[in-house]
Write a structure and sequence with these properties.
single chain, Alpha-Beta Plaits, 4-stranded antiparallel β-sheet, 17% strand, globular, binds 2'-deoxyadenosine-5'-diphosphate, binds magnesium ion
């Protein structure tokens, strides 16, 4: 089963949307296998977003993601990466479809509420940045057989 890293970014926390965002993933059917409330420091932000280093928006991105606490979680499910990206919506909320998190709750690219890993390599790298193996719980839900085929 596939795992992905999701972050409720500082704007989501500040706006009181933590539960709303978590709830959308939970209701979609993902199994939560890790979760923590933390503040990302500059070194971690630079590691997370190394692919954007040198771009014009990099400094703004780092100061935004380090500006306050976040909730970081690991979700599990078949095709968790692509499905959670669909639930999140397009990177720029102005292009994100209604019904997605960004399409319903955000307006601007630099305040887009939530992060989700983009592919398998990113997911593995990002999960290892934020969680130790012991912090990820292998468990099964009583409802799994009604959600996973
Ligand atoms: P995503 O968060 O959808 O995976 P990404 O990995 O391309 O998008 O970029 C990471 C974050 O950087 C994104 O959530 C918002 C910011 N960002 C990306 N492209 C940007 C741009 N052209 N201008 C301003 N911010 C940008
Ligand atoms: Mg990305």
């Amino acid at each position: 089963m596939e795992r992905t890293l999701i972050i409720v970014k500082p704007d989501g926390i500040q706006r009181g949307l933590t539960g709303e965002v978590i709830s959308r993933f939970e209701r979609r059917g993902f199994r939560i296998v890790g979760m923590k409330f933390m503040q990302i420091d500059r070194a971690l932000a630079e590691q997370h977003y190394f692919e954007h280093k040198g771009k014009g928006f990099f400094e703004g991105l780092v100061s935004y993601i380090t500006s306050g606490p976040v909730v970081v979680m690991v979700l599990e499910g078949n095709n968790a990466i692509d499905i959670s990206r669909n639930t999140i919506g397009k990177t720029n909320p102005k292009d994100a479809a209604p019904g997605t998190i960004r399409g319903d709750l955000a307006l601007e690219i630099g305040r887009n509420i939530v992060h989700g890993s983009a592919n398998e390599a990113d997911a593995e790298r990002e999960i290892n940045l934020y969680f130790t193996p012991a912090e990820l719980i292998d468990w099964s839900r009583d409802t799994d057989r009604w959600i996973f085929e």
